[in-house]
């Protein structure tokens, strides 16, 4: 299994997943289809599937165009998310096959949108798995609670995604790592792992390189939204439970980001 990053627009991420045995491919959130096709052609890939994480235009907006450009391509999306161009609706734990060796498990991860889907992808035995988290889980962050609750986001992050193997690579929908890690530093200023990753992420940005992938293990070490079970995080935000802490963290992050607008 090969995964290629396809940068799109200002900070969007699309990803090309390739089954090496057959050269069949899937693309996650192809907001700029021409760039995706250029990447696919450069690697000799036959595009078969679109995996849409959620209905927002920055993620599903290229679906109709890619259907025009690639005859017979299947477009997957959450069954309750009203994804533009969707040909195949998926429920939680539905399975999709790609080529000879790739299996894709759909995971319902609601809150940012009601029907948001993350895609957990495995290849041959021994290959490192991957999860494509759209706008639910970012590097050191999470999406805004546009259509859901703190309870739902906690379930999505700390139950559904945190239960994946720790080595699972995390590919998220936007390049927000530096600002997310800067905010994480305000919550845990003594966390050495956050300090180290922030320095690394700044270097990646300066070099024009992506900060994806992370891993589930790294997120559990550096992402405050996945660390709300810790008493020190709860105390920092003046809360006494993980869900209350998550709700307060999201409010604090929204206020903190105002300084960048």
Automatic annotation (TrEMBL):
<dbReference type="Pfam" id="PF00753">
    <property type="entry name" value="Lactamase_B"/>
</dbReference>
<keyword id="KW-0862">Zinc</keyword>
<dbReference type="InterPro" id="IPR032282">
    <property type="entry name" value="HAGH_C"/>
</dbReference>
<keyword id="KW-0378">Hydrolase</keyword>
<feature type="domain" description="Metallo-beta-lactamase">
    <location>
        <begin position="11"/>
        <end position="174"/>
    </location>
</feature>
<dbReference type="Pfam" id="PF16123">
    <property type="entry name" value="HAGH_C"/>
</dbReference>
<protein>
    <recommendedName>
        <fullName>hydroxyacylglutathione hydrolase</fullName>
        <ecNumber>3.1.2.6</ecNumber>
    </recommendedName>
</protein>
<keyword id="KW-0479">Metal-binding</keyword>
<dbReference type="GO" id="GO:0046872">
    <property type="term" value="F:metal ion binding"/>
</dbReference>
<dbReference type="InterPro" id="IPR036866">
    <property type="entry name" value="RibonucZ/Hydroxyglut_hydro"/>
</dbReference>
<dbReference type="InterPro" id="IPR035680">
    <property type="entry name" value="Clx_II_MBL"/>
</dbReference>
<dbReference type="GO" id="GO:0004416">
    <property type="term" value="F:hydroxyacylglutathione hydrolase activity"/>
</dbReference>
<dbReference type="InterPro" id="IPR017782">
    <property type="entry name" value="Hydroxyacylglutathione_Hdrlase"/>
</dbReference>
<comment type="similarity">
    <text>Belongs to the metallo-beta-lactamase superfamily. Glyoxalase II family.</text>
</comment>
<dbReference type="InterPro" id="IPR001279">
    <property type="entry name" value="Metallo-B-lactamas"/>
</dbReference>
<dbReference type="GO" id="GO:0019243">
    <property type="term" value="P:methylglyoxal catabolic process to D-lactate via S-lactoyl-glutathione"/>
</dbReference>
<comment type="pathway">
    <text>Secondary metabolite metabolism; methylglyoxal degradation; (R)-lactate from methylglyoxal: step 2/2.</text>
</comment>
């Amino acid at each position: 299994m090969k995964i290629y990053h396809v940068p799109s627009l200002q900070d969007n991420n699309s990803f090309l997943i390739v089954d090496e045995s057959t050269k069949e491919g899937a693309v996650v959130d192809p907001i700029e289809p021409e760039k995706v096709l250029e990447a696919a052609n450069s690697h000799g890939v036959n595009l078969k599937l679109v995996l849409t994480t959620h209905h927002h235009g920055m993620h599903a907006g290229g679906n109709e165009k890619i259907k025009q450009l690639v005859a017979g391509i299947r477009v997957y999306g959450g069954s309750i998310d009203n994804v533009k161009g969707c040909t195949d609706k998926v429920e939680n734990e539905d399975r999709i096959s790609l080529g000879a060796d790739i299996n894709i498990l759909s995971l319902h991860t609601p809150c940012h949108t009601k029907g948001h889907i993350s895609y957990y992808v495995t290849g041959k035995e021994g290959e490192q798995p991957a999860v494509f988290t759209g706008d639910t889980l970012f590097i050191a962050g999470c999406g805004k609670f546009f259509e859901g609750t703190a309870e739902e986001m906690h379930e999505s992050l700390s139950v559904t995604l945190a239960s994946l193997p720790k080595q699972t690579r995390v590919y998220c929908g936007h390049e927000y790592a530096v600002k997310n890690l800067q905010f994480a530093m305000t919550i845990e200023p003594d966390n050495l792992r956050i300090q180290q990753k922030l320095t690394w992420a700044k270097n990646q940005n300066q070099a024009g390189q992506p900060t994806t992938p992370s891993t589930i293990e790294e997120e559990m070490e550096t992402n405050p939204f996945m660390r709300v079970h810790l008493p020190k995080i709860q105390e920092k935000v003046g809360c006494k439970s993980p869900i209350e802490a998550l709700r307060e963290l999201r409010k604090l992050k929204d206020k903190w980001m105002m300084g960048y607008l």
